[in-house]
Amino acid sequence: MKKINVVIYGATGSIGRSTLSIISKNLDKINIEGITCNTNILKLLKIAKSYNVKKIGFNENTIYKLNKFNLNKYEVFNEGAKFYDIISKKTDVIIFATSGLTSLDLLLKILKSGKIVGLANKECIITLGKKFISLSKKFKTKIIPLDSEHNSIYHLLSQNLGKYKSITITATGGPFLYYKKNKLRSVTPQQAIRHPVWNMGSKISIDSATMMNKALEIIEAKYLFNLKNNQINAIIHPQAIIHALINYENGISTAVLNKPDMRIPISSLFFGFNKYSNAYRGIELNNYYNFEFMPIDKNKFPAVELGYQVMKVGGLAPHIFNYLNEILVNLFIKKRIKFLDIVKLNEVNMDRFFGKNSNIANPKLNDIKNINNWIDNNLYLGN
Question: CA 3 to CA 317: how far, in whole Å?
């Protein structure tokens, strides 16, 4: 039986670790062809040694660390611009689990690869917008989203159960679900990264705390599944067992229920939906008698409503919304702004941008780069 050859971009992060957990139990079925990281070279080399990986890639800014390591037995890719060359004709599956917009150029190349791509980078999808789907279709690249919500939607829609009316994605509500808004004024980065359900990196954990993550996921769903703005809803479901629902025109809704474990959506890349060879224990409903659902508090979590407005404006707005969030979350981590400033300053800076610049319905990559420069040079943080 031919092994599945996989390249993992972002092998040292949470998605990478979950992928490796699956592979470790299926070494007779899966071979790791190449792995990359941003700066954690030590961890990357441990993975390479454990799984006999020959190709490794890392951020060029970490070259100064290389004197500590013997890399002679590896094919080394020490510039992000060269990461695409890790992929070969033998590659079957690509895990794209880098975070943020720094890997946009790499993703553009991967969309033209014709491979199966497990994608866990909503920022790049939002920036590319309609171009994302058009490129993947043109080059017959199969995109399987790895976020639990979008992976659930992907598999539910694959059942072809008829014409649907809308899609609902769920949110846990993050660490501050039961906080009063005035208490949010003083929360710290350390508090914001303590997600009650998922074990994630700092940036995405803070996005979950502001619910910016859900706003971005709503926009992501629009582009992934070619939805109209009024077809996407979001509700809070703290238990994180139901990840998405498809609401059909005949009044029936279908949903995927599973424990909050990223290995479940990732496994569908290798084994297909509901065919994971090392199955986890399923949901025992007797243990979940208190499923909760509640609307999102727009006053406490304004990011979601702002996301809907951004989606309606379209053009440059989703990217600006996304790019500003990356900057502002980083400033919050550095304690230069307050938690509530993340969303407030996002809206303020978007208004300032469109007050001085015109929207572009179908922005090109050069437009995006020019906008980033404008924002970098004109960022407003208040008095």
Answer: 43
pLDDT along the chain (383 residues), means of 10: 93 93 93 92 93 90 64 84 92 91 88 95 88 92 94 92 94 95 96 89 92 96 94 95 94 89 89 60 68 94 97 95 96 97 97 94 90 96 82
Question: Are 141 and 179 in the same domain?
Answer: no
Does residue 170 sit in the same domain as residue 134?
no
Backbone angles phi, psi at 40, to 5 degrees: -85, 70
Determine the structural domain holding residue 156 and report its residue range: 151-378
Same domain, residue pair 82 and 114? yes
Q: What pLDDT does 282 receive?
A: 67
What is the structure's pLDDT at 135? 93
The contacts found for 77-81 with CB under 8 angstroms, 24 or more apart, are 77/34, 77/36, 80/105, 80/106, 81/105
Asked if residue 364 and residue 291 are part of one domain, the reply reads yes
d(CA 208, CA 217): 11
- Where does a domain end: 145, 180, 214? 145
How many angstroms separate the CA atoms of 200 and 301, rounded? 20
HSE-CB for 190 with a 13 A CA cutoff = 0
Q: Are residues 136 and 242 both part of a single domain?
A: no
**Comparing C-alpha atoms, which of 139, 324, 147, 286 is closest to residue 225?**
147
Identify whether residues 96 and 117 lie together within a single domain: yes
* Structure confidence at residue 381 (pLDDT): 95
Rounded-to-integer distance, Cα 195 and Cα 95, Å: 24
The pLDDT of residue 188: 97
Tokens found for residue 351: 């208004």
User: 377 forms bridges with which residues in the sheet?
Assistant: none
* pLDDT of 335: 96
Q: Are residues 125 and 155 in the same domain?
A: no
Q: In CATH, what number is assigned to the domain containing residue 87?
A: 3.40.50.720
Residue that finishes a domain, picked among 110, 127, 145: 145
* Whole-Å CA distances, 24 to 4, 58, 63, 263: 13, 22, 29, 12
pTM attached to this predicted model: 0.91
